[in-house]
Design a protein that fits this description.
This protein is an alpha+beta fold. Helix content is about 40%, strand content about 25%.
Length: about 190
Amino acid sequence: MKRYVLFLIVFLSTLTTKAGFGLSDWECNTPGGNRIGDYGSGIILSFMTSYQEEYEGKSIIRWYFYKGHIIGETTENGKTVSGFFVMNDEATADFKEFKSRKSWDNYLIKKALKPKIWTRWYAGNWVFFGEEFFVFSFILFFISIPLSVLFLSWCYKAIWKERLNIRKPYTLIVSIISGLVILTILFERFPQSI
């Protein structure tokens, strides 16, 4: 039992050291087709104008997507908020910067850019099932293959033995895992606030 606990501790500690392997860099496409990513020096928003030129903003602390806009906070030193921005139209790259929170909030209220139900703030990569997931699954095949076999055996038991009766344990487990995977995929495909 001690060996399993030790293995688990070593395994979990290696998952947090992605930067040492060069796997911490990431880049995602925004809903409007621009790019946002962290290449080791802070999160940068790169957007394409109609001339397909690339521009880069300051380091971004956090942001959200709403009604075709990207709204967020920027930093100079990597820790404290030093400015705010609104990318009004991702297609034309109309970019506005603000130095004070008050003027930024007034602009958001004037343009109705404050989500009414849920503001989905992002501070990093919002895609879970991206390339990194499959790279880690391939590298850690000695874990991903047994987990896949285990899940398939649960699916077999849920379908053939329990006849998909939601009151039975395997059907419940398969339903919860499948639901979480579907929700995760939907949330990463539609990252907008509502």
